[in-house]
Amino acid sequence: MPMDFLQRIEEASFPLAVRSEDDIRRAAVLAAAQLVEAVLPPSSSEGAEQRVAVILRITPRGRTELNRLRAGAHHL
Question: Taking the CB of the first residue and of the last residue of the chain, which one, N or C, has fewer CB atoms within 10 A?
Answer without folding.
Answer: C
